Amino acid sequence: MSMLNRRQIIILFVMVVAVFYGAYELVIAPRTKQDVVDIGKKSAELDTFINEITTYMPKGSRATSDSYMINRAEAHWVRDPFYERKSYREWVKVKEPAKAGSGAQKIIFDYSGYVNIKDKKIAVINGVEYESGDTLEIEGYILKGIYQNKVVIENVKSRSQFDVLLQE
Question: Who's near 62: CB < 8 A, 6+ residues apart?
Fold first, then answer.
């Protein structure tokens, strides 16, 4: 076995000192009764503090500023500070699923996922994963293009294309 270098000896010495100190604190050093008394005294002080607060605090009365804030929060807002017209319009469009076809039969496409791994783009439409150029489960439709916020679907019979926005 090779000799320990200076660094290893220092690390070993610090470790031994830490082990001995831990053993001393756990086994040898007795717990004093003063620690137990201090904990009981502190809990009694805390109880008296809580009792003082509850007795001096007025019951059922609020500051006028608190009442004003509560009334304003419950009132109908004339203008929402977080409202943006452009974002709202896009959100409404996304909420309405894209419909294709004519006549009595309406076909609904639900574009719910987008994955871009290196050069491969995958779209999740009606719960099924597709790549660009794949035929959809619904007969007569082909996925022409995949974008982050929409997909382009083509009806094979009429050669018409339409966009379906990503629904979050």
Answer: 70
